[in-house]
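[09:14] KT: can someone run the structure on this one? pasting the chain below
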Amino acid sequence: MTLATLCLCVLLQQPQVPMAASAAISETTGGIRADIQSSEGLPVAGVQIRLKHRDGRVWATLTDGKGHFQAGGLPPGEYQIESRLAGFKGESCTIQIKAEAWLLGVPKHPVALRETGAKVLHFKGPSTYEVPLAVIQPQKRPELGKIPMH
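[09:31] RB: done, structure tokens below
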């Protein structure tokens, strides 16, 4: 094996650096808003949330002081979502992102990741979709003066 081939193999094996998730959604993107808590039911801050699209792209965000996270700007499709924090066992499951909608919560029964740790992180569920009012287009009504009167 040549040095160039070896370097190429090493580069291809390096983990992909996740993109930062957006705070908004659009006509062509969606997102997720959810919470992470410990096995004691307490919110956990600083948890890394990784979202891997079926095409291999990865997005990431962190939970805030209340264990809440938000990841927008995601193309529609299926994602593998994982929670990670040193000293904790995270969870992983598959979610579906829809354009113009927020997924609220994570489906029940995610799989615990096999990482060393005494405590467990839990996604809160069940999941539902929310379409923001700004995305819903009101139907146009005819002006009163233009309604035919018989």
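[09:33] KT: thanks! Helices lie at 3-13.
[09:34] RB: yep, looked fine to me
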